[in-house]
Every structure is written in C-alpha cells, then in structure tokens.
Amino acid sequence: GQQLNQSPQSMFIQEGEDVSMNCTSSSIFNTWLWYKQDPGEGPVLLIALYKAGELTSNGRLTAQFGITRKDSFLNISASIPSDVGIYFCAGHPRGGSEKLVFGKGTKLTVNP
Amino acid sequence: GAVVSQHPSRVICKSGTSVKIECRSLDFQATTMFWYRQFPKQSLMLMATSNEGSKATYEQGVEKDKFLINHASLTLSTLTVTSAHPEDSSFYICSAPRTGIGDTEAFFGQGTRLTVV
C-alpha cells in the first residue's frame, strides 16, 4: 500500500531550538495533515494543508504543502518542553477515498 | 474542544469477554468513520472503515467476526472486540472526517486502551 516516508524518526533538542521534520511520498497527495500525539491520547490535528505551495502557520508551528504535491514539512520554532510528543504526517492520496495514509512518526524530545 | 469523542478511554476485561468501544462525532455528521489500532511506538494501523447504514469495510488481515463494527447513526460508530484475548490488548483509536467546502479534516478520538487479562 501507499506509504509516507517521515523523517527524522526521532529528535533530541534543547529548549528554544527550532525543529524541522518532513514527509515525502512517491505519489501525489491532495491533502497533507500534521498531527501531534501525546502518550495515551489520540492524535490532535495541528495543521491541514490543501493546496500545492500552501504555507500555513499555527502559533509556533509552520507547515508547507510541497509544490510537487509529494512532500510536506513541519517546522516548530523556539521549542518548549510541552512540544514533546510524537508528530505524524498524514495525507489523502489523489484519487483515493477519505482514508488517510500515515507517516511513521517523529518522536520529539525537548530538554529544558 | 474535542470534535470526536471516544469512550471508554481505558478498559480492562477478562479473556473471552466482549468489549464495546464508542466513537461519536460532535457537532457534525460522519457517514464514514475509521478504526485504527496502534501498537507501542508505532504509527496507526487502519483496521476498518465504518459506513453509516451499510457494512464496514475491513482491511486485509483484520477479522471481521472478531472486530464487529456498527455505524447505526450519522454520529455514532461502535467497535466491539468479541471474545477478547490477551493479544487483542492494544490502543484503539477512531477518527471521523469532517468535510467542508474544498477540504476534509480528519479528527481523532481520545483512544481506548484495552487490556485483556
């Protein structure tokens, strides 16, 4: 089945640092969604992207829908301890149903 | 606030019993909902697509008689784990897509931690 390649798998950073993670696909996606999951909780939607080239911010988070529609990145600026968690990219493939395809996640650890 | 509510958040049951998990969309109707299973330190694995008023669609390798899905209304889907065994212990999560004009957002429930003893 389709897969999203998400990297890095994990990150260890100091509080205040900026973070960047990305997802790529071999096929075109119609939407890109970025989620954060805390332990024992369901994923929470951070940013949704619908158009190629779209750049959207949500507070300290910024995400972009790649021009080729095959990639997306998420940046977190000035990280804080509560940014700790697992970040997932997900998307709806072109021509697909409402089923989401997920990346494998990026585990972020922020040291105070 | 939450737009998809999942209940219960945790359940412990004895081997051989059945457990029902509910997933509700709040303030919007969802003709389709999705059920996922998540193993520790892994991504979400789609189990089945719940379709309002019709049979669920199961992913390859998922036993439909084991994981019964009912989508009786536009705001409620249920997953029943029948004759649960310890290997069914896992984190189960539902999601519901909310479609607007030109976009679809998928929202997730809080998840259910099932422990079968």
Report on the structure:
The complex is a heterodimer of chains A (112) and B (117). With 112 residues, chain A is an all-beta fold. Helices cover 0% and strands 54% of the residues of chain A. Chain A has strands spanning 5-7, 10-14, 19-24, 29-37, 44-49, 55-58, 61-65, 71-76, 85-93, 101-102, 106-111. In chain A, the strands form two sheets. In chain A, strands 2, 4, 5, 9, 10 and 11 form a six-stranded mixed beta sheet that branches. In chain A, strands 1-3-8-7-6 form a five-stranded antiparallel beta sheet, with no helix packed on it. Chain A starts with a strand and ends with a strand. The mean pLDDT of chain A is 94. Chain B has 117 residues and is mainly beta. Chain B contains no helices and eleven strands. In chain B, strands 2, 4, 5, 6, 9, 10 and 11 form a seven-stranded mixed beta sheet that branches. In chain B, strands 1-3-8-7 form a four-stranded antiparallel beta sheet, with no helix packed on it. Chain B is globular, with a radius of gyration of 14 Å. The mean pLDDT of chain B is 93. At the A-B interface, strand 4, strand 5 and strand 9 of A face strand 5, strand 9 and strand 10 of B.
Q: How many helices of chain A does DSSP assign?
A: 0
- Mean pLDDT reading of chain A: 94
What is the element string of chain B, with H for helices and E for strands?
EEEEEEEEEEE
Overall number of strands of chain B: 11
Radius of gyration of chain A over alpha carbons?
13 Å
Question: Which runs of chain A of at least 5 residues are low in confidence (pLDDT < 50)?
Answer: none
Question: Class by helix and strand content of chain B?
Answer: mainly beta
Shape of chain B: globular
- Helix content range of the residues of chain B, please? under 10%
Query: What's the SSE pattern of chain A?
Result: EEEEEEEEEEE
Give the biggest sheet of chain A: 6 strands, mixed
**Termini separation of chain A:** 40 Å
**Biggest chain-to-chain interface with counts:** A-B, 22 and 24 residues
Q: Which assembly state applies to the chains in this document?
A: heterodimer
Poorly predicted sequence stretches spanning 5 or more consecutive residues of chain B: none
Summarize the main sheet of chain B.
Answer: 7 strands, mixed
User: What structural class should be given to the helix and strand makeup of chain A?
Assistant: mainly beta
